[in-house]
Amino acid sequence: MKSVLRGLLLPLGLLILLELYLRLTGLKTDSLSPPSDIVLALGEIILDGRLFILIGQTLAAAFGGLAIAGILGLVAGTAIGLFPTAGRIVFPTIEALRPIPSVATIPLVLLIFGFGYRLEIVIVAYAAFWPILILTESATRLIERGLLEVARLLGFGFWRILFTIVLPAALPRLVLALRLALGVALVVAVTVEIVINPQGLGYALMRSQEQLRPDLMYAMIFAVGLMGWGLNALMIRLERRLSPPAAHG
């Protein structure tokens, strides 16, 4: 707790200095706002319920895309890890598609699905799929091959191997993959809302900028950052709980 408080001293000090500077100079600008006005704007959208609606819209799209990416990435990564020959066949395709930025798919996805949740979920799923696929494949390859051979000799099918061997053995790495993919999902969801999709925190952030409300714009940015920090902290705690004691000593 003390380390957290010490870490807050510098940003709080800078905010106080900014508040004093803007108040004493009377500087008016469309890009800066006194921290006290940002706090008031944040309180405004909390009290009228707007913030929770916007967070719900962004999280719905982010988690929807993450769920699709998680299922597809887990199955595909496990299959590639278990069957190296199949991996060598699909590897060129993966390496050709993976570098394509998710935002570059917006025009195509927009033509197919139009505005709304489906647009955002598909783009988020595309972006989050790759880290889950790669880390799942890596985790599967690190599993003792003899254990997998015994499972095959016992007649275990793909799905039984996945749920009885791969998932328990690779769970800490899979949680890491999910944590990385969650960060990607939030970034992409907010980006899509800023660029084209009229919903969620990203869209509200752009609207406040267009309305020349820097206090509200910074309040939205703070809400996005706080949401990401909170979700990442939860995933770190989950990762530590699932890791062997020696891994985090």
Task: Give a short summary of the structure.
By secondary structure, this protein is mostly helical. Helices cover 84% and strands 0% of the residues.
List the helices and strands and how they pair.
Elements: H1 2-25, H2 35-47, H3 50-82, H4 84-97, H5 106-113, H6 117-141, H7 145-153, H8 158-195, H9 200-210, H10 214-242, H11 245-248
Helix pairs in contact: 2-10, 3-4, 3-6, 3-8, 3-9, 5-6, 6-8, 8-9, 8-10, 9-10
Could you characterize what this model shows?
With 249 residues, this protein is an all-alpha fold. 84% of the residues lie in helices and 0% in strands. The protein is built from 11 helices and no strands. The chain has helices spanning 2-25, 35-47, 50-82, 84-97, 106-113, 117-141, 145-153, 158-195, 200-210, 214-242, 245-248. Helix 2 packs across helix 10.
